[in-house]
Amino acid sequence: MSVPEKVRQTVVELRAAVAYHNDLYHGKDNPEISDAAFDEILRKLAELEAKYPELLDDASPTQIIGAGATTFDPVTHRVPMTSLDNAMDVAELQAWGERAAKGLNNVAMQFACELKIDGLALSIRYENGELVQAATRGDGKVGEDVTANVRTIAVIPKKLVASSGVVVPSVLEVRGEVYMSLSAFEKFRDAKMRENEKRVSEGKKPENVPANPRNAGAGSLRQKNAQVTATRELSFWAYQLGEVVGAPNFATHSESLDYLRSLGFPINPEVKTLDSLSKVVEFCQQSEASRHKLNYEIDGVVVKLDSLTQREQLGFTSRAPRWAIAVKFAPEERNTILKEISVSIGRTGRATPFAVLEPVVLSGSTVSMATLHNREQVQLKDVRPGDTVVVRKAGDVIPEVVGPVLSLRPKNSKPWKFPTSCVCDLKSKLVQVEGEADTRCVEPECPFQRDQRIIHFASRGAMDIEGLGEKTVFALSDKNFVADIGDLYSLTLEKLLQLEGFAELSAKNLLKAIEDSKSRPLAKLLVGLGIKNLGPAAAESLARRFGSLDAIIAATPEQLSEIDGVGGVIATKITDWFAEKSHMAIIKKFRAAGVEFGNVAVNDAPQNLVGKAIVVTGTVEGFSREGAQEAITSRGGKSPGSVSAKTFALVVGDEPGASKLTKATELGIPIIDAVGFLKLLETGELPN
Question: Catalytic: 116?
Answer without folding.
Answer: yes
